[in-house]
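We treat protein structure as text, and this decision shapes the records that our systems exchange. The remainder of this section carries one protein's record, kept here as part of the documentation:
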Amino acid sequence: MRKWLLLGGVVVVCLALVATEAFLRRVDHEHETAGSSNTRHQPLSTTSLEHVRTTLEETGAGPVEEMVPSMGGALATLDDGIIALDPATGEQRWSYHLPATEVAVGVTPLDTTNDTDPQQRVVLTYDTPSLLGSRGHTITLDALTGDEIHTTAHSAQDAPNQRVRSLTQDTRIVPRGNRTLEAFSLETGHSIWEYQAPQDCQIDMPTNNDTPSGVGTLQTQVITAWHCPQKERAMMVTLDAANGEEMWNHGLAGYRDMAPQVWAMNATALADTGQPHAARAIAQGDIGRRYSLLDGEGGELDTQLWDEVDDLGYLVPPPGGPVWEDRDDIVVGHSDEIDYSLRLHVIHELLDQGALDPENVPDHLWQETADGEQRLIENRDGRRIPREPIEQAVVDNDDQDN
């Protein structure tokens, strides 16, 4: 009898532990979707983002930590979740809340936009207490509708904000030390591959979202650059985000003081949201003259705009050079996005320089702000940007010099 009593006691304790663990991990959530709508609600300027922020905070939704542009609308990240709003009306499209839970939010990059299925995801991640320590959780949502795509439980080894700092369509990338990248599946939460720079080499790892680093991501690719100071060697490597296999690489300038940086072009990024924008950096000359502009589909050097417009290089530093080993930094993007963003930001910069008359800029590139000010639309609206204004600015600049 005593044996059975002891056994029964053990069972009761085990059941109690299981129940306690389940209770600790349980987090209530509030989820509203936008139905089956595939209509894009892409913010066209930071003005519209800030208008949405003000409207939301005035309704008592709580302080907004960040406004992020996406194909699903203006994303307002709160301390306990996210709300997607129509940037034109301020109306809610979908939301996901985890009350009383601190949440980190990220959005996967887009190489270029399309009207069918842009495959952009919103990633939420948080920790819960556990009898054996904290447990991590990651939820992946469709950016257009807010529908839940994946939900996973995993180790809480990394802080929530580190899990969403570098994302691809299906993975999250986490730095390990100064030479290793580890990839985790958004579907399963499992570690699926690691990439390690050579011995005695290092990668300028990302520490926040506001400064460039030696790691960049596109929809299905991870781009990293490493530097070996003692060997005076540097390399850029592009990896398949699904399996970590090398797709292509390029040598960079090895004799240098700083590790190389990678700039990736994102089709939903706005120019002045605080995050570095590659096309703007090129147009303003912030990258300098020692950079390579690569088509992410195959690593081919892209100089199309400078080839089309004679003498543009006198106003905007062109990419490339005689040999790859002369290049300091790398800019990578989809060919369509390179073409669109560069033209737009070059026009913007030429306006700032006074080299271009605003009357020569096509009407569809202007947007009227709430206070009636005309400003350039700062991400794609689906229409082609002509090169004529750039050519005109170059001609006018030459005339002034003469």
Remarks:
- The CA atoms of residues 232 and 255 lie 5 Å apart.
